[in-house]
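Chain A, query sequence.
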Amino acid sequence: MQEPKDAEARRAVTPVICYPNDTLPVPDLESFARARDGAEKIAEVRVEPREAATFRAEAGQFFRISSIEGPQVGDLNLWNAHDLSERFYSGKSRALHGTHLTEGERMWSSFPYLRPMATITGDTLGWYGIDGFGGSVHDVIGTRCDPYTGNLLAGSQYHHCCHSNLTRALADELGVSLEEAEPHVHDVLNVFMCTGFTRDTGQYFMKASPVRPGDYLEFFAEIDVLGALSACPGGDCSAEHSSDTAACHPLLVEVFAPQAGALDGWESPAVNGYDRSHGRRAPS
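Chain A, predicted structure.
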């Protein structure tokens, strides 16, 4: 295909940030840090390799996801613990913060709620930044490995991908069928996963995660949340996923409750203030 004469001029147009985020509500990380000091661990869940598990954290509590035995990536879903229609919105979180999340950034919920569900308050991989390939950690660009794409591309019937793991875990938590649980499983925060887009073809890539035992990602629960975490069958995602050949390791989820009074003055965020009229007046 022949390029137009002004092709280079068109490519040279300066980009504009779609959603300038300098007006976003700023989390009070100092207050959260004070509340975290002296917080008591009240629960822990071990997520076995190629499986998923659920956990709950109340508004004002902290939850931490840790690498404990070896490099391992986890796929995280979050819901409002009282209303599963409010769930993590990875696309809007990406639009507001960027392709990868780190300390001080938030997991935002779906429409019509669009409020912070959890704020990242600790990230031991925050040093990684963006590498020479354009890769970084904790992405909100990958959707989760799933059996449908595997079947489409390779004709496989693989059942321990993250989508299926999350579906089984949620079904067990709620006491419902797989068919009832599956529609609630959604695009994830890829905890510890190192990803980016190739510069030549724009394809989504993964590479070996820099996570090591002792690394963690910690969150402050802004609302009561139900979480599900899958220990991805790709292990550290250095070569492949959705198979039983990668070395995989467990992950640990811990929940911490601050001391009474540690969050005096803090309130869980209200749902989004848009009036939902969508341009139509209510009947008079």
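The chain has one domain: 43-257. The mean pLDDT is 96.
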